[in-house]
Amino acid sequence: MNYKKENETSFTLGAFPTMEILKARSNLVRTIYTHKNLKQSAEIQNILQLAQNLNIPVTDGTRLIERVSGKENVFIMAEFHKFNDKITAGDQIVLYNPSDMGNVGTILRTSLGFGVKNIIFIKPCVDVFNPKVIRASMGAIFSLNIVMYENFNEYLKENEKIKKYLFMLDGKQTLQTLDFGKGEKALIFGNEASGLPSEIKQYGTPVFIEHSNKIDSLNLAISVAIALYQLAK
Amino acid sequence: MNYKKENETSFTLGAFPTMEILKARSNLVRTIYTHKNLKQSAEIQNILQLAQNLNIPVTDGTRLIERVSGKENVFIMAEFHKFNDKITAGDQIVLYNPSDMGNVGTILRTSLGFGVKNIIFIKPCVDVFNPKVIRASMGAIFSLNIVMYENFNEYLKENEKIKKYLFMLDGKQTLQTLDFGKGEKALIFGNEASGLPSEIKQYGTPVFIEHSNKIDSLNLAISVAIALYQLAK
Fold this sequence. Notes:
Two copies of one chain form a homodimer.
Chain A: E1 9-13, H1 15-24, E2 29-34, H2 42-53, E3 58-60, H3 62-69, E4 76-81, E5 92-96, H4 101-113, E6 118-122, H5 131-136, E7 145-149, H6 152-158, E8 163-167, E9 173-174, E10 185-189, E11 205-208, H7 220-232
Parallel strand pairs in A: 2-3, 5-6, 5-10, 6-7, 8-10, 8-11, 9-11
Antiparallel strand pairs in A: 1-4, 2-4
Helix pairs in contact in A: 1-2, 4-7
Protein backbone atom coordinates (compact mmCIF):
# COMPACT_ATOMS: atom_id res chain seq x y z
CA MET A 1 0.00 0.00 0.00
CA ASN A 2 1.36 3.37 -1.02
CA TYR A 3 0.27 5.05 2.18
CA LYS A 4 2.16 5.68 5.39
CA LYS A 5 1.03 6.48 8.89
CA GLU A 6 3.32 9.52 9.02
CA ASN A 7 1.80 11.11 5.89
CA GLU A 8 -0.23 14.26 6.43
CA THR A 9 -2.95 13.04 4.11
CA SER A 10 -4.91 9.83 3.62
CA PHE A 11 -7.44 8.45 1.14
CA THR A 12 -11.10 7.43 0.93
CA LEU A 13 -11.28 4.24 -1.14
CA GLY A 14 -14.42 4.10 -3.26
CA ALA A 15 -17.50 6.18 -3.89
CA PHE A 16 -19.26 5.77 -0.55
CA PRO A 17 -16.62 7.24 1.82
CA THR A 18 -15.69 9.81 -0.84
CA MET A 19 -19.26 11.07 -0.82
CA GLU A 20 -19.29 11.09 2.98
CA ILE A 21 -16.22 13.31 3.27
CA LEU A 22 -17.58 15.70 0.64
CA LYS A 23 -20.79 16.03 2.63
CA ALA A 24 -19.23 16.28 6.09
CA ARG A 25 -15.70 17.74 5.76
CA SER A 26 -15.20 19.00 2.22
CA ASN A 27 -12.68 21.59 3.44
CA LEU A 28 -10.21 18.76 4.13
CA VAL A 29 -10.34 17.33 0.61
CA ARG A 30 -7.30 18.13 -1.49
CA THR A 31 -7.96 16.19 -4.69
CA ILE A 32 -10.42 13.66 -6.12
CA TYR A 33 -8.66 10.92 -8.10
CA THR A 34 -10.44 8.82 -10.71
CA HIS A 35 -9.37 5.50 -12.25
CA LYS A 36 -9.38 5.04 -16.02
CA ASN A 37 -11.96 2.23 -15.61
CA LEU A 38 -14.37 4.41 -13.61
CA LYS A 39 -17.93 3.77 -14.76
CA GLN A 40 -20.47 6.54 -14.69
CA SER A 41 -23.38 6.21 -12.29
CA ALA A 42 -25.71 8.57 -10.45
CA GLU A 43 -23.47 8.37 -7.36
CA ILE A 44 -20.31 9.18 -9.35
CA GLN A 45 -22.10 12.05 -11.09
CA ASN A 46 -23.05 13.45 -7.69
CA ILE A 47 -19.47 13.25 -6.45
CA LEU A 48 -18.06 14.94 -9.55
CA GLN A 49 -20.72 17.66 -9.47
CA LEU A 50 -20.14 18.32 -5.79
CA ALA A 51 -16.36 18.50 -6.35
CA GLN A 52 -16.90 21.02 -9.10
CA ASN A 53 -19.22 23.16 -6.96
CA LEU A 54 -16.63 23.11 -4.16
CA ASN A 55 -13.69 23.88 -6.48
CA ILE A 56 -11.96 20.62 -5.61
CA PRO A 57 -9.65 19.40 -8.38
CA VAL A 58 -10.57 16.10 -10.07
CA THR A 59 -7.72 14.33 -11.84
CA ASP A 60 -6.75 10.96 -13.28
CA GLY A 61 -5.05 8.84 -10.63
CA THR A 62 -5.20 5.31 -12.01
CA ARG A 63 -1.76 4.29 -10.80
CA LEU A 64 -2.09 6.01 -7.43
CA ILE A 65 -5.47 4.36 -6.79
CA GLU A 66 -4.03 0.95 -7.66
CA ARG A 67 -1.05 1.47 -5.39
CA VAL A 68 -3.10 2.71 -2.44
CA SER A 69 -5.92 0.16 -2.71
CA GLY A 70 -3.90 -2.90 -3.73
CA LYS A 71 -5.87 -5.34 -5.81
CA GLU A 72 -9.29 -4.12 -4.80
CA ASN A 73 -11.91 -2.70 -7.14
CA VAL A 74 -11.55 0.98 -6.37
CA PHE A 75 -12.22 3.52 -9.10
CA ILE A 76 -12.49 6.81 -7.22
CA MET A 77 -10.95 8.23 -4.08
CA ALA A 78 -10.37 11.52 -2.29
CA GLU A 79 -7.05 12.57 -0.80
CA PHE A 80 -7.72 14.43 2.44
CA HIS A 81 -5.85 16.11 5.29
CA LYS A 82 -5.90 14.19 8.57
CA PHE A 83 -7.56 15.95 11.48
CA ASN A 84 -7.63 16.05 15.29
CA ASP A 85 -10.80 17.50 16.79
CA LYS A 86 -11.70 18.94 20.16
CA ILE A 87 -14.09 17.17 22.49
CA THR A 88 -17.58 18.62 22.49
CA ALA A 89 -20.48 18.24 24.92
CA GLY A 90 -22.04 14.77 25.15
CA ASP A 91 -21.05 11.19 25.80
CA GLN A 92 -17.68 9.71 24.85
CA ILE A 93 -16.30 6.43 23.60
CA VAL A 94 -12.70 6.08 24.74
CA LEU A 95 -10.52 3.45 23.05
CA TYR A 96 -7.39 2.68 25.02
CA ASN A 97 -4.63 1.33 22.71
CA PRO A 98 -6.88 -0.34 20.10
CA SER A 99 -4.85 -2.31 17.58
CA ASP A 100 -7.21 -3.71 14.96
CA MET A 101 -8.19 -1.51 12.01
CA GLY A 102 -11.39 -3.40 11.23
CA ASN A 103 -12.56 -3.11 14.84
CA VAL A 104 -11.90 0.64 14.93
CA GLY A 105 -13.74 1.22 11.65
CA THR A 106 -16.74 -0.78 12.83
CA ILE A 107 -16.78 1.06 16.18
CA LEU A 108 -16.83 4.43 14.39
CA ARG A 109 -19.80 3.36 12.27
CA THR A 110 -21.69 1.97 15.27
CA SER A 111 -21.01 5.06 17.40
CA LEU A 112 -22.44 7.33 14.73
CA GLY A 113 -25.43 4.98 14.51
CA PHE A 114 -26.13 5.34 18.21
CA GLY A 115 -25.44 9.07 18.38
CA VAL A 116 -22.20 9.19 20.40
CA LYS A 117 -20.00 11.73 18.65
CA ASN A 118 -16.82 12.01 20.74
CA ILE A 119 -14.45 9.18 19.88
CA ILE A 120 -11.24 9.37 21.85
CA PHE A 121 -8.06 7.41 21.17
CA ILE A 122 -5.39 6.83 23.80
CA LYS A 123 -2.01 6.18 22.15
CA PRO A 124 -0.27 3.99 21.24
CA CYS A 125 -3.00 2.87 18.91
CA VAL A 126 -3.78 1.84 15.38
CA ASP A 127 -3.47 4.50 12.65
CA VAL A 128 -7.00 5.88 12.76
CA PHE A 129 -6.64 7.45 9.32
CA ASN A 130 -5.41 4.36 7.52
CA PRO A 131 -7.59 3.92 4.39
CA LYS A 132 -8.70 0.53 5.73
CA VAL A 133 -10.15 2.14 8.85
CA ILE A 134 -11.86 4.85 6.77
CA ARG A 135 -13.39 2.18 4.61
CA ALA A 136 -14.47 -0.08 7.49
CA SER A 137 -16.14 2.97 9.05
CA MET A 138 -18.11 3.49 5.81
CA GLY A 139 -17.03 7.13 6.02
CA ALA A 140 -18.63 7.57 9.47
CA ILE A 141 -15.29 8.93 10.71
CA PHE A 142 -15.97 12.23 8.95
CA SER A 143 -19.14 12.89 10.96
CA LEU A 144 -17.54 12.27 14.37
CA ASN A 145 -15.18 14.17 16.67
CA ILE A 146 -11.91 12.26 16.53
CA VAL A 147 -9.63 13.15 19.42
CA MET A 148 -6.18 11.71 20.18
CA TYR A 149 -4.33 11.75 23.50
CA GLU A 150 -0.71 10.79 24.00
CA ASN A 151 -1.60 8.81 27.13
CA PHE A 152 -4.38 8.21 29.64
CA ASN A 153 -3.15 10.89 32.07
CA GLU A 154 -3.54 13.59 29.46
CA TYR A 155 -7.07 12.39 28.82
CA LEU A 156 -7.82 12.44 32.56
CA LYS A 157 -6.50 15.97 32.99
CA GLU A 158 -8.90 17.38 30.44
CA ASN A 159 -11.82 15.12 31.34
CA GLU A 160 -11.80 15.05 35.10
CA LYS A 161 -15.50 15.34 35.80
CA ILE A 162 -17.16 13.09 33.25
CA LYS A 163 -18.61 9.84 34.71
CA LYS A 164 -16.36 7.03 33.56
CA TYR A 165 -17.32 3.39 32.92
CA LEU A 166 -14.40 1.02 32.48
CA PHE A 167 -15.24 -2.15 30.56
CA MET A 168 -13.23 -4.97 32.16
CA LEU A 169 -13.64 -8.71 32.44
CA ASP A 170 -13.39 -8.52 36.24
CA GLY A 171 -15.91 -5.70 36.63
CA LYS A 172 -18.38 -6.49 39.42
CA GLN A 173 -21.15 -4.35 37.98
CA THR A 174 -22.75 -6.03 34.96
CA LEU A 175 -23.92 -3.92 32.05
CA GLN A 176 -27.17 -5.85 32.12
CA THR A 177 -28.11 -4.36 35.52
CA LEU A 178 -26.35 -0.99 35.22
CA ASP A 179 -28.30 2.24 35.51
CA PHE A 180 -26.23 4.84 33.66
CA GLY A 181 -28.19 7.65 35.31
CA LYS A 182 -28.04 11.25 34.14
CA GLY A 183 -25.15 13.42 32.98
CA GLU A 184 -22.42 12.88 30.45
CA LYS A 185 -20.68 9.52 30.37
CA ALA A 186 -17.43 8.12 29.04
CA LEU A 187 -17.41 4.43 28.06
CA ILE A 188 -13.81 3.24 28.14
CA PHE A 189 -12.54 0.06 26.43
CA GLY A 190 -9.10 -1.56 26.44
CA ASN A 191 -6.88 -3.21 23.87
CA GLU A 192 -8.20 -6.33 22.03
CA ALA A 193 -5.67 -8.67 23.63
CA SER A 194 -4.80 -7.10 26.96
CA GLY A 195 -7.90 -5.12 27.98
CA LEU A 196 -7.65 -2.15 30.34
CA PRO A 197 -4.79 -1.98 32.84
CA SER A 198 -6.09 -2.60 36.35
CA GLU A 199 -4.44 0.54 37.76
CA ILE A 200 -7.01 2.76 36.05
CA LYS A 201 -9.90 1.08 37.87
CA GLN A 202 -9.86 3.87 40.47
CA TYR A 203 -11.03 6.45 37.94
CA GLY A 204 -14.48 5.04 37.30
CA THR A 205 -16.95 2.17 37.56
CA PRO A 206 -15.67 -1.18 36.25
CA VAL A 207 -18.38 -2.84 34.16
CA PHE A 208 -18.62 -6.37 32.79
CA ILE A 209 -20.84 -7.43 29.89
CA GLU A 210 -22.05 -10.72 31.28
CA HIS A 211 -21.43 -13.70 29.00
CA SER A 212 -20.94 -17.43 29.42
CA ASN A 213 -17.56 -18.76 30.46
CA LYS A 214 -17.42 -20.76 27.22
CA ILE A 215 -15.69 -17.81 25.57
CA ASP A 216 -12.72 -15.82 26.89
CA SER A 217 -14.19 -12.46 26.00
CA LEU A 218 -16.36 -10.68 23.47
CA ASN A 219 -14.73 -9.04 20.45
CA LEU A 220 -13.91 -5.34 21.06
CA ALA A 221 -16.25 -3.93 18.41
CA ILE A 222 -19.03 -6.19 19.73
CA SER A 223 -18.51 -5.00 23.31
CA VAL A 224 -18.61 -1.35 22.29
CA ALA A 225 -21.76 -1.92 20.23
CA ILE A 226 -23.61 -3.64 23.04
CA ALA A 227 -22.63 -0.87 25.47
CA LEU A 228 -23.76 1.79 22.98
CA TYR A 229 -27.08 0.01 22.50
CA GLN A 230 -27.64 -0.17 26.26
CA LEU A 231 -26.64 3.49 26.70
CA ALA A 232 -28.97 4.68 23.95
CA LYS A 233 -31.89 2.61 25.16
CA MET B 1 -4.02 -20.69 0.60
CA ASN B 2 -3.77 -24.44 0.15
CA TYR B 3 -7.36 -25.05 1.17
CA LYS B 4 -10.48 -25.40 -0.92
CA LYS B 5 -14.15 -25.11 -0.07
CA GLU B 6 -14.84 -28.49 -1.64
CA ASN B 7 -12.30 -30.32 0.55
CA GLU B 8 -13.71 -32.71 3.13
CA THR B 9 -11.35 -31.40 5.78
CA SER B 10 -10.25 -28.00 7.05
CA PHE B 11 -7.67 -26.64 9.51
CA THR B 12 -7.46 -24.85 12.85
CA LEU B 13 -4.71 -22.24 12.60
CA GLY B 14 -2.82 -21.84 15.86
CA ALA B 15 -2.91 -23.20 19.37
CA PHE B 16 -6.16 -21.68 20.59
CA PRO B 17 -8.64 -23.16 18.06
CA THR B 18 -6.62 -26.40 18.03
CA MET B 19 -7.18 -26.75 21.76
CA GLU B 20 -10.86 -25.91 21.34
CA ILE B 21 -11.48 -28.69 18.81
CA LEU B 22 -9.60 -31.21 20.97
CA LYS B 23 -11.81 -30.31 23.91
CA ALA B 24 -15.12 -30.17 22.03
CA ARG B 25 -14.92 -32.46 18.96
CA SER B 26 -11.76 -34.54 19.16
CA ASN B 27 -13.41 -37.34 17.15
CA LEU B 28 -13.24 -35.10 14.06
CA VAL B 29 -9.50 -34.48 14.29
CA ARG B 30 -7.45 -36.44 11.77
CA THR B 31 -3.93 -35.14 12.39
CA ILE B 32 -2.10 -32.47 14.37
CA TYR B 33 0.60 -30.73 12.33
CA THR B 34 3.53 -28.91 13.91
CA HIS B 35 5.89 -26.35 12.35
CA LYS B 36 9.65 -26.73 12.71
CA ASN B 37 9.75 -23.38 14.55
CA LEU B 38 7.13 -24.43 17.11
CA LYS B 39 8.17 -23.23 20.57
CA GLN B 40 7.27 -25.26 23.62
CA SER B 41 4.82 -23.72 26.07
CA ALA B 42 2.33 -24.99 28.62
CA GLU B 43 -0.46 -24.64 26.05
CA ILE B 44 1.47 -26.58 23.40
CA GLN B 45 2.35 -29.28 25.94
CA ASN B 46 -1.35 -29.62 26.77
CA ILE B 47 -2.27 -30.01 23.11
CA LEU B 48 0.40 -32.63 22.46
CA GLN B 49 -0.48 -34.56 25.62
CA LEU B 50 -4.18 -34.49 24.76
CA ALA B 51 -3.43 -35.70 21.22
CA GLN B 52 -1.39 -38.58 22.61
CA ASN B 53 -4.15 -39.57 25.04
CA LEU B 54 -6.66 -39.52 22.20
CA ASN B 55 -4.42 -41.44 19.80
CA ILE B 56 -4.37 -38.59 17.32
CA PRO B 57 -1.24 -38.59 15.14
CA VAL B 58 1.13 -35.62 15.51
CA THR B 59 3.44 -35.00 12.59
CA ASP B 60 5.74 -32.37 11.10
CA GLY B 61 3.78 -30.17 8.69
CA THR B 62 5.98 -27.12 8.24
CA ARG B 63 5.28 -26.70 4.55
CA LEU B 64 1.58 -27.51 4.82
CA ILE B 65 1.13 -25.00 7.66
CA GLU B 66 2.88 -22.30 5.64
CA ARG B 67 0.76 -23.01 2.60
CA VAL B 68 -2.54 -23.04 4.49
CA SER B 69 -1.86 -20.02 6.69
CA GLY B 70 -0.01 -17.82 4.21
CA LYS B 71 2.50 -15.53 5.83
CA GLU B 72 0.99 -15.64 9.30
CA ASN B 73 2.76 -16.86 12.41
CA VAL B 74 1.13 -20.26 12.77
CA PHE B 75 3.12 -23.11 14.30
CA ILE B 76 0.49 -25.73 15.04
CA MET B 77 -2.80 -26.75 13.48
CA ALA B 78 -5.28 -29.62 13.42
CA GLU B 79 -6.75 -31.08 10.26
CA PHE B 80 -10.39 -31.95 10.92
CA HIS B 81 -13.43 -33.36 9.13
CA LYS B 82 -16.14 -30.83 8.37
CA PHE B 83 -19.48 -31.45 10.00
CA ASN B 84 -23.19 -30.70 9.65
CA ASP B 85 -25.21 -30.99 12.84
CA LYS B 86 -28.86 -31.41 13.62
CA ILE B 87 -30.87 -28.66 15.26
CA THR B 88 -31.46 -29.20 18.97
CA ALA B 89 -33.91 -27.61 21.41
CA GLY B 90 -33.40 -23.91 22.14
CA ASP B 91 -33.12 -20.63 20.33
CA GLN B 92 -31.63 -20.22 16.87
CA ILE B 93 -29.54 -17.71 14.98
CA VAL B 94 -30.32 -17.99 11.25
CA LEU B 95 -27.91 -16.40 8.78
CA TYR B 96 -29.42 -15.98 5.34
CA ASN B 97 -26.68 -15.85 2.66
CA PRO B 98 -23.91 -14.31 4.79
CA SER B 99 -20.85 -13.47 2.70
CA ASP B 100 -18.14 -12.16 5.02
CA MET B 101 -15.87 -14.65 6.79
CA GLY B 102 -14.87 -12.28 9.57
CA ASN B 103 -18.52 -11.49 10.33
CA VAL B 104 -19.46 -15.15 10.49
CA GLY B 105 -16.55 -15.99 12.81
CA THR B 106 -17.41 -13.12 15.13
CA ILE B 107 -21.09 -14.13 15.15
CA LEU B 108 -20.17 -17.70 16.16
CA ARG B 109 -18.05 -16.44 19.05
CA THR B 110 -20.76 -14.01 20.22
CA SER B 111 -23.52 -16.64 19.98
CA LEU B 112 -21.56 -19.03 22.18
CA GLY B 113 -20.98 -16.15 24.60
CA PHE B 114 -24.72 -15.51 24.89
CA GLY B 115 -25.71 -19.17 25.00
CA VAL B 116 -27.47 -19.61 21.66
CA LYS B 117 -26.25 -22.94 20.28
CA ASN B 118 -28.13 -23.50 17.02
CA ILE B 119 -26.47 -21.56 14.20
CA ILE B 120 -28.20 -22.08 10.91
CA PHE B 121 -26.87 -21.12 7.49
CA ILE B 122 -29.10 -20.65 4.45
CA LYS B 123 -27.14 -21.18 1.24
CA PRO B 124 -25.60 -19.72 -0.82
CA CYS B 125 -23.24 -18.53 1.87
CA VAL B 126 -19.62 -18.14 2.82
CA ASP B 127 -17.62 -21.33 3.42
CA VAL B 128 -18.28 -21.77 7.13
CA PHE B 129 -15.30 -24.09 7.52
CA ASN B 130 -12.72 -21.84 5.90
CA PRO B 131 -9.73 -21.60 8.28
CA LYS B 132 -10.29 -17.82 8.47
CA VAL B 133 -13.81 -18.33 9.85
CA ILE B 134 -12.57 -20.94 12.34
CA ARG B 135 -9.91 -18.52 13.51
CA ALA B 136 -12.25 -15.49 13.72
CA SER B 137 -14.60 -17.65 15.81
CA MET B 138 -11.70 -18.38 18.21
CA GLY B 139 -12.72 -22.03 17.93
CA ALA B 140 -16.27 -21.30 19.16
CA ILE B 141 -17.57 -23.12 16.06
CA PHE B 142 -16.70 -26.49 17.66
CA SER B 143 -19.02 -25.90 20.63
CA LEU B 144 -22.05 -24.96 18.53
CA ASN B 145 -24.59 -26.81 16.38
CA ILE B 146 -23.77 -25.81 12.82
CA VAL B 147 -26.64 -26.57 10.44
CA MET B 148 -26.81 -25.86 6.71
CA TYR B 149 -29.91 -25.62 4.52
CA GLU B 150 -29.92 -25.46 0.74
CA ASN B 151 -32.55 -22.71 0.81
CA PHE B 152 -35.01 -20.93 3.07
CA ASN B 153 -37.93 -23.22 2.16
CA GLU B 154 -36.06 -26.25 3.43
CA TYR B 155 -35.41 -24.42 6.68
CA LEU B 156 -39.09 -23.47 6.95
CA LYS B 157 -40.27 -27.05 6.38
CA GLU B 158 -38.28 -28.36 9.33
CA ASN B 159 -38.81 -25.34 11.56
CA GLU B 160 -42.42 -24.46 11.07
CA LYS B 161 -43.42 -23.69 14.63
CA ILE B 162 -40.54 -21.72 16.08
CA LYS B 163 -41.27 -18.00 16.61
CA LYS B 164 -39.34 -16.11 13.94
CA TYR B 165 -37.92 -12.58 14.18
CA LEU B 166 -36.73 -11.12 10.88
CA PHE B 167 -34.16 -8.34 11.25
CA MET B 168 -34.90 -5.81 8.51
CA LEU B 169 -34.31 -2.11 8.05
CA ASP B 170 -38.02 -1.52 7.41
CA GLY B 171 -39.23 -3.51 10.41
CA LYS B 172 -41.94 -1.58 12.28
CA GLN B 173 -41.21 -3.24 15.61
CA THR B 174 -38.00 -1.93 17.15
CA LEU B 175 -35.75 -4.29 19.09
CA GLN B 176 -35.59 -1.66 21.83
CA THR B 177 -39.30 -2.12 22.63
CA LEU B 178 -39.68 -5.78 21.69
CA ASP B 179 -40.87 -8.32 24.26
CA PHE B 180 -39.56 -11.68 23.03
CA GLY B 181 -41.96 -13.53 25.34
CA LYS B 182 -41.66 -17.23 26.09
CA GLY B 183 -40.86 -20.22 23.93
CA GLU B 184 -38.12 -20.89 21.44
CA LYS B 185 -37.13 -18.14 19.05
CA ALA B 186 -35.29 -17.88 15.76
CA LEU B 187 -33.47 -14.59 15.07
CA ILE B 188 -33.01 -14.30 11.31
CA PHE B 189 -30.51 -11.97 9.60
CA GLY B 190 -29.90 -11.26 5.91
CA ASN B 191 -26.86 -10.78 3.71
CA GLU B 192 -24.44 -7.91 4.54
CA ALA B 193 -25.25 -5.95 1.40
CA SER B 194 -28.80 -6.90 0.49
CA GLY B 195 -30.45 -7.82 3.80
CA LEU B 196 -33.44 -10.20 3.92
CA PRO B 197 -35.71 -10.49 0.88
CA SER B 198 -39.05 -8.84 1.58
CA GLU B 199 -41.05 -11.91 0.50
CA ILE B 200 -40.09 -13.76 3.68
CA LYS B 201 -41.66 -11.09 5.90
CA GLN B 202 -44.83 -13.17 6.13
CA TYR B 203 -43.06 -15.89 8.14
CA GLY B 204 -42.34 -13.86 11.25
CA THR B 205 -42.10 -10.50 12.99
CA PRO B 206 -39.95 -7.93 11.17
CA VAL B 207 -37.70 -6.17 13.71
CA PHE B 208 -35.56 -3.06 13.34
CA ILE B 209 -32.64 -2.14 15.61
CA GLU B 210 -33.30 1.55 15.91
CA HIS B 211 -30.31 3.73 14.95
CA SER B 212 -29.80 7.24 13.61
CA ASN B 213 -30.26 7.91 9.91
CA LYS B 214 -26.64 9.06 9.73
CA ILE B 215 -25.63 5.51 8.90
CA ASP B 216 -27.17 3.21 6.30
CA SER B 217 -27.21 0.18 8.55
CA LEU B 218 -25.33 -1.53 11.33
CA ASN B 219 -22.69 -4.13 10.47
CA LEU B 220 -24.11 -7.69 10.42
CA ALA B 221 -22.03 -9.05 13.30
CA ILE B 222 -22.96 -5.96 15.35
CA SER B 223 -26.68 -6.43 14.67
CA VAL B 224 -26.57 -10.09 15.68
CA ALA B 225 -24.63 -9.25 18.86
CA ILE B 226 -27.08 -6.57 19.94
CA ALA B 227 -30.02 -8.90 19.30
CA LEU B 228 -28.32 -11.70 21.27
CA TYR B 229 -27.66 -9.32 24.15
CA GLN B 230 -31.28 -8.20 24.19
CA LEU B 231 -32.53 -11.80 23.98
CA ALA B 232 -30.30 -12.98 26.84
CA LYS B 233 -31.18 -10.05 29.07
